[in-house]
Amino acid sequence: MHFRGLDLNLLVALDSLLTECSVSAAGRQLHLSQSAMSGALARLRDHFHDPLLMPVGRRMRPTPVARQLAGPVRSILLQIDASLRARASFDPKTAERRIQIAASDYAIDVLLLDVHRRCAAVAPGITFDIIPVAANAVAALDRGELDLLVLPDRYRLTARPFAPLFSDRLVCVTGRDGPVSGDSITLKSFKEAEHVLFQPDPGHVIAFDRWLRENYHFEPAVKLLLPSYASLPHAVVGTNRIATIPERLARRYAEHLPIRLLRPRFRMPALNEIMQWHEAHTADPGLAWLRGVIVDAAQSFDR
After folding, report:
1. How far is 73 from 15, CA to CA, in rounded Å?
2. Of 4, 81, 108, 206, which is most buried with the most CB atoms under 10 A?
3. How many whole angstroms separate alpha carbon 250 and alpha carbon 170?
4. pTM
5. Which own/partner contact pairs does 137-145 have at CB distance under 8 Å and 24+ positions apart?
């Protein structure tokens, strides 16, 4: 089918070429030979009067025209896919599909494992693929490759739909015989303590640590950096160090670890978790159903 001189089948090839920036990789993705993919690229270049992909060193890079086309082309294909799904009925008892969600290990522990249990009972054919939140997760959401993204509201993508999930507050945890007595901690003791910090990626300063620097103007004495929230309660056991983590997570680990929770006697930022998705997935009946399950699981915290 042609539209204004363009074979619309070539939009799929264009999307793959601009995603992979490689003729051979795009061909593998679409199960086409390299010669067939090269032919598609030649036709696209002829239509847009632009090379689209140019060799730079040993790699191919998109031209400015190609970068302008990438977003609209992906959105068109996602809208077509969403329209086809919207026509299909969704029955959780019989549905079979794989759903990819990006979330922190904190959100997995306090929320998504419960969501998995609920779905296992009523939608056994749904498979969850949960990946860590990282810079590429945001790009994957923009490309429509990620079904859902669970993250703190302060990281919200302004151009994507979202739903609030739950709120939490930050507390400090220390070993059972840690240096701070009682069940609270002052700002002075917090500043003097040795800290174990969460760092999801090398060099990544999370929003909470940035907030501390901006509001209390100090650099904590960091003795250990860990890539997961779940490791922090374990790390303070048997030490004089403290870690700052969401209270819901801290209470779960306090049930089986020799740790104490310390309520900060100074202002801390609120932690509000949200869920985001690509607008092309809004009308997808299966994802709409799942979003409802996730919201209900989050609201059960208060119930």
Report:
1. 6
2. 108
3. 9
4. 0.74
5. 137/102, 140/102, 141/102, 141/276, 141/277, 141/278, 142/71, 142/278, 143/19, 143/74, 144/74, 144/75, 144/77, 144/78, 144/81, 144/278, 144/280, 144/281, 145/100
